[in-house]
Amino acid sequence: MKLIFEKSKPGHGCAILPPLDVAACELPSELRRDSVLRLPELSETEISRHYTGLVHEVYGVNSGFYPLGSCTMKYNPRIDEEMAALPLFTGIHPLAPKEATEGCRRVLEEAGRLLGEISGMDAMTFQPAAGAHGEFTGVLLIKQYHDARGDEKRRKIIVPDSAHGTNPATAAMCGYEVVNIASAPDGCVDLEALKAVLGDDTAGLMLTNPNTVGLFDPNILEITRLVHEAGGLCYYDGANLNAVMGHVRPGDMGFDCVHMNLHKTFATPHGGGGPGAGAVGCKAFLAPFLPKSALMDGGNAIQVRAFAGNFLVVVKALTYILTLGREGIPQASETAVLNANYLMHALKDVFTPAFDRICMHEFVLDLSQYKKETGVSALDVAKGLIDHGIHPPTMYFPLIVHEALMLEPTETESRETLDEVAEIFRKVKEEGMRDPERLHTAPHGTSIGRPDEVMAARNPVLKAEL
Question: pLDDT by residue (tens digit) across 349-362?
Fold first, then answer.
């Protein structure tokens, strides 16, 4: 597909301006551009066709099945978008006087109250712009807490090997030494490994439960107790909250602070770089360290983003929560868990589950044996799925499973869709056994084939040469 600048032709346009009915005013020379502004020249028809063409090149949850494990790519209800598009929300200025922002303040207060109830936290900030940004804010709370008490020897953050990659990066960005602990054979935290690294230098633990392989850790209360006993704090990565919301609260599991991906669990648009929101909640004793907000009273001097964060994302999340209500929130998580177990069971005779037991919201397939038998890798299978009209699952994650494909079907997928997906996986597996080379070179039906991913990562082409 051509770039819009490649389609541009001098003289094409679609703007018709009325005659000037006021006195002309020339800008001072120092305010004028030194060169002509380079904009594409197209008719309205050409512009419409260009952006319609771009839509056809994009794949989203409104296009088809999107089982990106650990990302909770659920369908976003249209009512959420409509509420966030209300002019009195979109037209407000973050520096408007207090009396002009009462409605926005009420949105933040109500969203904070409900998310606090769902997560078991006492206070909330909406400043973080995304999940990883929320992690950063949460660990900063832990750091401020220890620093305020003069407990400067606590320089280590414990991170399990099944954690999201952002966890160790976040801890390092906050100035901590990252202590990695291996998982037990059952895919959960190894209690003995945890005990071995706990000490008076432990600042905290970063953990998500259920974990990255989709398993709820049966020792979660013992894990948080051990960390607290050592003087550390417990941070909850809320990436997998969709599996337990309305049933189990991080605060009741013993966690002191949590981030929640509003752009995942609470059904606001996800992908393409945002906008997202990584709301951070904490227990009362950490509340004094929360970031300040231009709209909300209280908070500490730290600020991780301008104003109150991505406010319209909070509007969407609040709409979602109010729409589902007290009955719908737990029903959504129940259906997410049901869908994941249904699909995992349907695929058992296709590929091997990494942990063949009841999962939560997601599960991991281990294609190691299949690769040994056919030479077809998890990457090849993922690329082959594209030719059948579905988005690939997460590949090679978590690192504790070799040749991993991680699937999260979410609660918004129907049983019929899951049956179709299972059949597609079966077809791709058979295709790899019959003609491995075809999967090695997949996808074949897309506008762009398989790129050289190493070259793309090391020498990316970030702009077109026109």
Answer: 999 999 999 999 99
